[in-house]
Amino acid sequence: MASGGNDAKFFTRGKIQEFKAELQDAAKGKDKKFVKRKTVLKKIVANITMGNDMSQMFPEVIQCLPIPMLEIKKMVYLFLVSYGRVRPDLIERALPHFIADCEDRNPLIRALAIRTMSYIPLPSVLSALVEPLRHSLKDSDPYVRKTAAICVAKIYLVDHRIVERERFIDNLKELLKDANPTVVANSVAALTEIADRSDTIVLKFPYSLALKLVAALENCSEWGQIYILDSLLNYVPQTSDEATVMTERIVARLQHSNSAVVLTVIKVLLYLMNYIESKQSNDYLCKKMGPPLEVDIDFVRKAVRSIGRLAIKISSAADPCIKVLLELVDSKVSYVLQEAVVVIKDILRRYPDQYDSVIPILCENMNSLDEPEAKAAIIWIIGQNAQKIENADELMDTLTYTFLEEAVEVQLALLTATVKLFIQKPQEGQKLLPKVLKWATEEVDNPDLRDRGYMYWRLLSNDAAAAKDIVMGDRPPVNTDTDRMELGALDQLLLHTGTLGSIYHKTPETFIRYAKGKALKDSPALNATSRRALISLPTGGPPKPVSTAALVPPIPQSIRDMQSEARSPPPSATGSTMAQAQQAAPLGAEDDLLSPSEAEYTGGPSRKGTVDSDISQDKPALPPKSNDPYAGLDSAFGGYVADQPKPVGGRPGEFDDLLL
Amino acid sequence: MISGFFIFNQKGEVLITRLYRTDIKRSISEVFRIHVVSSNDVRSPIVTLGSTSFLHVRHNNIYVLAITKNNANAALIFEFLYRFISISRSYFGKLDEEAVKNNFVLIYELIDEILDFGYPQTSEIDTLKAYITTEAARSEVTDIGESSKLTTQMTGAVSWRRGDIKYKKNEAFVDVVENINLLMSAKGTILRADVDGQILMRAYLSGMPECKFGLNDKLVLDKAERAADNAVRLDDCQFHQCVQLGAFSSDRTISFIPPDGEFELMKYRSTSDVHLPLRVHPTVTEVGTSQVQYSITVKTGFNPKLSATNIVLRIPTPLNATIAQCKTVSGKAKYSPAENVIIWKIPRIQGGSEATLTAAVDLTATTTRQPWARPPIDVDFQVLMLTASGLLVRFLKVYAKEGYHSVKWVRYLTKASGTYQIRVRSFIVASDIN
């Protein structure tokens, strides 16, 4: 095991003048094995890291380029990548060295030179790179070719005209047939990125190319496999058989230990399934993709929630779902049980009177519940169904025993359930009711609980009949619209499996600036089910946010929405409304902070000119903490991480520019 | 893809910055510091602000961060971040603030190589070590032949292995490690029993040997019509990058050219016919409201040549327990009031034998009306040379040039830690006193 270096001492703020002097002295005097200059360069790199502006060192650092030592060369190159853009006047001096390196006999040096040059987005550097790059794309060494392929994408993003003028895209296409799998993978990655950024280039892979790419998979690095698999979305199967063959070629990758490979395979399989006719084949693939039985608590919880959602959304699935949930309850694994109780509550509400037989089973497990959400759920069930539960008063009596120690969520549920019990069974509820009302209104500090307590109190004392109508009135049906997706939206989202978009349940064009959407493409092989859901992407113009109906809020959110009692005041501590409100508010304020130059800067190929003007590396983009523009966001931020990840910022680019 | 790679310390100071794309600036590190490092309630490893996403992993006292402005493959980024951590650990022994500061130049070299334009490239430790080396062992790669060999290896089909590895004695060690998970009802029925297995290999083999690995995999043996009683059904297998997945999916052979040294060859799961190494028979009697009596017997389910070691039973007691008197001839038992458990440690139980504990726990009077929830008994243990799934290595063949001798060793280990649980029910008898 390597013991590692001893460079921490260089992590101190240094003076430019001292560094300059040290480098000059070392160059003049004896510098055995270049040790002195190496040391100064390390100090400079450390200072760059710490955010100290070292750009004034440019002339002295460049003078170190001729030193024949790879370690020094790499540090100088790192310096040039960091400050090259700042000193276009001085970069010229480095060019001859770069060019010489591009012709070095050592392939590692050749690749290093073109890789570094392509990180410096200056016209002079890029035009000097054109010829060496043309050679590198045909270099005899695969390492140089694979580096050159990525260089093309780098240049394209800075100035696509160079790539078009030099016809480098043709070179990349040529490299797709390269014998070396890594070269193929990087060329595919470069082409994919270019097509993503371009308005004119659309990748269409014919079947023969797709087969070739798949053949390269077995010999690729895990990352290369991902790039190749990803690119298969550019292939549109023309027959069901084609699509089936493709799935057979890639399905083995599901056993890869890299989760990103697995997720990308899943994405491609899901895509190909649209073009497969046979239900049997698709069923087989679904089974293959089924996740293994995880012993992961979060995963199991999500699975239980999904079963509940299924039951709520599809009434014909409710019976089997309830059956499975009862089996889970029977497992008595604590977190599974708690989660199951929460979802069964929603099912009971969605299908009143249908699953009354379940209630006693849940009540039996009442004492095992300790999470507030699960407790609140069982309390709701008991309150709502007090009529049907023989010993409802005893159960409520036990549950209220610890009223004062419970979480607010549970206290609110207890209060409402006690009122419901009293209304349905006045005899049995009359002893408990005054006790709970008194606690809620006199002994608890929470205003929501107190207000709700008073509301019930007055309601019951003024007009008991009205109270019954209100408390036990018709419940609005459980609304599943919040997570309803437009036909086809799910298909689109699945094309982004494994990406940030799939985590947020949003297609990228709705939350990422300049992102392109993906849509299923028509072909004779598209099966009937998928054809019904076929939607094409909006064409032309900047991406518009899709109507909110198409946006999918994360799952637990919507389930939570269903839980808030329609007639009761929304509990402010738990409701999702709060997080949403906070999210919207601070964003407007931030718009004011955009300075014009920052607002213009995009870094995208279409606005190339601004790249050069944006040179203020060391100028902090944000004011110091005292008037931190994000201060107001903190709470909203906290709200969202406590729940489910979702991108902050409603529309693409709304406060994007601040982050440049 | 990745626009920038950063390492922060706990204070939010930048230890490493590398920008791969012009769509972000160095100062973006401030945003991460404010929103994640200084924020108390960030639990999500992904934060998206506008179009910019921050994906981070905390490791020791540092944050390893990747920033992207695209709809990047999140799984890829996290796999990459964890890979960076394992590469660093292999280089520096550990990855923390001190190690980063002491090796920052090397880290810059590494991340220039393993990420190009934000696309992960070579991440095979062995290959990287061949030409990115620590100060102590630095040698310049100037030899052209050497360089070409390297570049071929980095981009080739066997990027994880150098071709010129030599050992005097060719040895391969295979460790099959199984974690058993059990949930048993109070009546003794198995509610859940499964095994998470891992096959670890340490290969010290010269040249480019091709290995073939054979298990008593039910699918293979059934196909060969070799009716084997002891075949195992593997529900889910995952393989190291070196295993040819195509070959496995067509005929379930596991063939590979191994990396040099230690690696995880495969992971698997088995849920059928899991063999329970230990059985626990608890009898719990609640005497009135003042005492609980325990009689707990542990029986082994393997042959007398083997033994279970480091057995720890955690036996829950009621919350209002005051003192516990434990009696056993096997190991030691003591009551831990802080955790409300009796901890019974037995250093070793030979196969075919059993151990018994009796205990009496006194309770104080309580005002709590909720009955005792009776959490399950939890057992930790390990058994050498046993697999709970029944998995066996049938062969490991090493194919190389003629006259190539290799010695192969196999070990098995089954262990349980925290997930081997037995439910209890108690018999309630009236108290003798009054």
Automatic annotation (TrEMBL), chain A:
<keyword id="KW-0472">Membrane</keyword>
<dbReference type="GO" id="GO:0016192">
    <property type="term" value="P:vesicle-mediated transport"/>
</dbReference>
<dbReference type="GO" id="GO:0030117">
    <property type="term" value="C:membrane coat"/>
</dbReference>
<dbReference type="Pfam" id="PF01602">
    <property type="entry name" value="Adaptin_N"/>
</dbReference>
<comment type="similarity">
    <text>Belongs to the adaptor complexes large subunit family.</text>
</comment>
<keyword id="KW-0813">Transport</keyword>
<comment type="function">
    <text>Adaptins are components of the adaptor complexes which link clathrin to receptors in coated vesicles. Clathrin-associated protein complexes are believed to interact with the cytoplasmic tails of membrane proteins, leading to their selection and concentration.</text>
</comment>
<feature type="domain" description="Clathrin/coatomer adaptor adaptin-like N-terminal">
    <location>
        <begin position="294"/>
        <end position="462"/>
    </location>
</feature>
<protein>
    <recommendedName>
        <fullName>AP complex subunit beta</fullName>
    </recommendedName>
</protein>
<keyword id="KW-0653">Protein transport</keyword>
<dbReference type="GO" id="GO:0030276">
    <property type="term" value="F:clathrin binding"/>
</dbReference>
<dbReference type="GO" id="GO:0012505">
    <property type="term" value="C:endomembrane system"/>
</dbReference>
<dbReference type="GO" id="GO:0006886">
    <property type="term" value="P:intracellular protein transport"/>
</dbReference>
<dbReference type="InterPro" id="IPR016024">
    <property type="entry name" value="ARM-type_fold"/>
</dbReference>
<feature type="domain" description="Clathrin/coatomer adaptor adaptin-like N-terminal">
    <location>
        <begin position="22"/>
        <end position="277"/>
    </location>
</feature>
<dbReference type="InterPro" id="IPR026739">
    <property type="entry name" value="AP_beta"/>
</dbReference>
<dbReference type="InterPro" id="IPR011989">
    <property type="entry name" value="ARM-like"/>
</dbReference>
<dbReference type="InterPro" id="IPR002553">
    <property type="entry name" value="Clathrin/coatomer_adapt-like_N"/>
</dbReference>
<feature type="region of interest" description="Disordered">
    <location>
        <begin position="561"/>
        <end position="660"/>
    </location>
</feature>
<dbReference type="InterPro" id="IPR016342">
    <property type="entry name" value="AP_complex_bsu_1_2_4"/>
</dbReference>
<feature type="compositionally biased region" description="Polar residues">
    <location>
        <begin position="573"/>
        <end position="583"/>
    </location>
</feature>
From TrEMBL, chain B:
<feature type="domain" description="MHD">
    <location>
        <begin position="169"/>
        <end position="423"/>
    </location>
</feature>
<keyword id="KW-0254">Endocytosis</keyword>
<keyword id="KW-0472">Membrane</keyword>
<dbReference type="InterPro" id="IPR022775">
    <property type="entry name" value="AP_mu_sigma_su"/>
</dbReference>
<dbReference type="Pfam" id="PF00928">
    <property type="entry name" value="Adap_comp_sub"/>
</dbReference>
<dbReference type="GO" id="GO:0006897">
    <property type="term" value="P:endocytosis"/>
</dbReference>
<dbReference type="InterPro" id="IPR043512">
    <property type="entry name" value="Mu2_C"/>
</dbReference>
<dbReference type="InterPro" id="IPR011012">
    <property type="entry name" value="Longin-like_dom_sf"/>
</dbReference>
<dbReference type="GO" id="GO:0005905">
    <property type="term" value="C:clathrin-coated pit"/>
</dbReference>
<dbReference type="GO" id="GO:0030131">
    <property type="term" value="C:clathrin adaptor complex"/>
</dbReference>
<dbReference type="Pfam" id="PF01217">
    <property type="entry name" value="Clat_adaptor_s"/>
</dbReference>
<keyword id="KW-0813">Transport</keyword>
<dbReference type="GO" id="GO:0005886">
    <property type="term" value="C:plasma membrane"/>
</dbReference>
<dbReference type="GO" id="GO:0006886">
    <property type="term" value="P:intracellular protein transport"/>
</dbReference>
<keyword id="KW-0653">Protein transport</keyword>
<protein>
    <recommendedName>
        <fullName>MHD domain-containing protein</fullName>
    </recommendedName>
</protein>
<dbReference type="InterPro" id="IPR036168">
    <property type="entry name" value="AP2_Mu_C_sf"/>
</dbReference>
<dbReference type="InterPro" id="IPR001392">
    <property type="entry name" value="Clathrin_mu"/>
</dbReference>
<dbReference type="InterPro" id="IPR050431">
    <property type="entry name" value="Adaptor_comp_med_subunit"/>
</dbReference>
<dbReference type="InterPro" id="IPR028565">
    <property type="entry name" value="MHD"/>
</dbReference>
<comment type="similarity">
    <text>Belongs to the adaptor complexes medium subunit family.</text>
</comment>
<dbReference type="InterPro" id="IPR018240">
    <property type="entry name" value="Clathrin_mu_CS"/>
</dbReference>
